[in-house]
Design a protein that fits this description.
The chain has 327 residues and is an all-alpha fold. 69% of the residues lie in helices and 0% in strands.
Length: 327
């Protein structure tokens, strides 16, 4: 029996799709500092972009040394906002490098500064909460993840447009925690609110958001045995994905085909399932071949690589069943 506090890797990969829209890990507001021409900030961002983590970290730390340590009573509002921006940028760098404890410390400091300077209900506190939720979720601290996902949604939903992609990400992130806790009914209520992001043209963010949300909804339907609903959601995601091009569109296609294959397998249609998996594997292999030279360290590449391993294993198992135990 599945542990209620643990996600299978397969489901965990599916439920984090939405946060890969920006390759970031959560719904995030742009971080704006008052020092756009600062050479140290520019050097830090350029180093992070080319994967030079040590140099980026050194530059961000140098920027932090300009601000007071501890209580920020001496900081102006603008200085506090800049200080918070640098903390969040460094936290993103650390989280992307797998240094979750460091990222947590930095984000909690940023949240504390925002709350003391601007108040607990300031939208910026909501954006930081939206970064803390996925951070805790990635380390299986589901109670903390749910708290911050709910806080982000509470603070930001009133200030976001109804079809803003960020709102969809917030809803989907909270739903993913509820799925991890086997609270599928609550999760589906939230996920079904994201259906509009795929079926309407009011999306103000990434064009891939809607199909990604549909894949997550379909995965959840499949987990609880609602195969007809799951199949419809996968097929709708595939249809919407065909409008777009690029790496994320192919990722949507690969994961949707994998989901459809699992539905066919549950119906006993192993031949159809293996055919769908072969197509999914072909898409995944081409994605990795094309991108291997320049984005092997990016989150979406890593998720693609791991998901492809899972699909290949599933394909071998189904082939073995079809051929009486022989692949």
């Amino acid at each position: 029996m599945r542990n209620a506090n643990t996600l299978s890797l397969d489901l965990a990969l599916a439920l984090t799709l939405c946060v890969l829209i920006g390759g970031a890990g959560c719904a995030r507001a742009p971080i704006r500092a008052r020092m756009p021409d600062d050479p140290v900030l520019e050097a830090a961002r350029n180093a992070a972009a080319r994967g030079d983590i040590c140099t980026a970290r050194q530059n961000y730390r140098h920027l932090l040394s300009r601000y007071p340590v501890g209580h920020d009573d001496g900081e102006s509002g603008a200085m506090a906002a800049d200080h918070t921006a640098v903390l969040r940028l460094l936290a993103r760098l650390e989280q992307g490098s797998g240094n979750y404890f460091e990222a947590e410390v930095l984000l909690l400091e940023a949240l504390d500064r925002v709350e003391r300077r601007f108040g607990k209900n300031d939208p910026l506190a909501g954006w930081i909460a939206a970064e803390l939720g996925p951070l805790y979720q990635s380390t299986a601290r589901l109670a903390e993840a749910e708290y911050f996902h709910r806080r982000a949604l509470t603070l930001l939903e009133p200030v976001l447009e109804p079809h803003d992609t960020h709102l969809g990400i917030l809803l989907n992130n909270l739903a993913s925690v509820l799925v991890a806790a086997d609270r599928h009914g609550e999760a589906i209520e939230l996920m079904e609110r994201t259906r509009a992001f795929a079926l309407e043209n009011a999306d103000t963010g990434s064009a891939h958001a809607g199909p990604l949300f549909l894949v997550n909804l379909a995965d959840t339907y499949r987990q609880i045995g609602r195969l007809v609903d799951a199949e419809q959601a996968y097929r709708t995601a595939l249809a919407r994905q065909r409008v777009e091009k690029g790496y994320r569109a192919n990722f949507i296609a690969m994961t949707s085909l994998d989901g459809l294959a699992q539905i066919e397998a549950e119906r006993g249609e192993l031949t159809t399932a293996t055919t769908l998996l072969r197509v999914a594997i072909g898409i995944g292999e081409r994605m990795l071949e094309v991108s291997n030279g320049y984005c092997a360290g990016m989150p979406l590449y890593k998720h693609t690589h791991r998901r492809l391993e899972i699909i290949n294993e599933r394909y071998r198992e189904m082939r073995a069943l079809l051929h009486g135990g022989w692949v």
